[in-house]
Amino acid sequence: MSPVPAVPARTSRTWSAVGVLLIVLAWHVAARQLGPLLMATPWEALCAIVPLVQSPQFFANAGVSLMRIGVGVLAGASLGFTAGVLAGHSARLRGLIEPLRWLLMAMPPVVIVVLAMLWFGLGSPMVIFITTLMMAPGMYVNTVKGMLHVDRNLIEMTHVYRYGRWLRLRHLYLPALSAPLLAALLIAACGGVRLVVMAEVLGAENGVGYALANARSTFDTAELFAWVLLILGLVAVLEFAFLQPLQRRLGRWMESSRA
């Protein structure tokens, strides 16, 4: 009798909380060792959030960065998904796109930032271009892999029953692609936040990264780490308040689509 495969245990929230406490403790110890000029303590960073939020530049910088993140991630995800669906249907197109995909994934982001600064100058077009260009390959790869793993018999059945393109996309491809696409979207959303902030630090006239660069230049480590905490909070909201509920909703939709 073959053994029954074990069901993976759910992640323990208690141990996750312990992990967070260990990170905060390590942060506190490192800050004490390095001194206030190099690293603020967790408490100092928390206390710096209130005056930071009350400053007149906060909402301007945060709003610009959120706009760049939304437009860049949406454009990159849409471009990668569309190219992946088309390449999943055509081996020739897939071979044509593959060198460009490899080039974008192999090239260091700093190189793309420097080139974008030369082409677009400082500002939102440069940041959005970088985010779109770096987000699209991941979405494309996951879409193509999902398309290639769709059961060929089901594809032939949709042709026999004369399903149109929209019906095939809705009832065949999207249920098969939902899991890899959601994983890619999670990576794209979190990676998009990091890319936008990095691009703003290296070359922007406003935004969260610009504020981080100013805090670094004035050695205001409390404000710098306060921005870091706010960025982490944004990523947490994206993952736990938006992407995970979307994952559960897609899971229910997949079950109803299979039925």
From TrEMBL:
Subcellular localization, as worded in the UniProt entry: Cell membrane
Keywords recorded for this protein, A-Z: Cell membrane, Membrane, Transmembrane, Transmembrane helix, Transport
Mode of membrane association: Multi-pass membrane protein
TM spans (from-to): 12-30, 66-88, 100-120, 126-144, 172-197, 224-243
Pfam families reported for this sequence: BPD_transp_1
Keyword Cell membrane: yes
Top-level taxonomic group: Bacteria
InterPro entries linked: MetI-like, MetI-like_sf
ABC transmembrane type-1 domain ranges (all copies): 62-242
Family: Belongs to the binding-protein-dependent transport system permease family.
Protein name according to UniProt: NitT/TauT family transport system permease protein
Taxonomic path: Bacteria, Pseudomonadati, Pseudomonadota, Betaproteobacteria, Burkholderiales
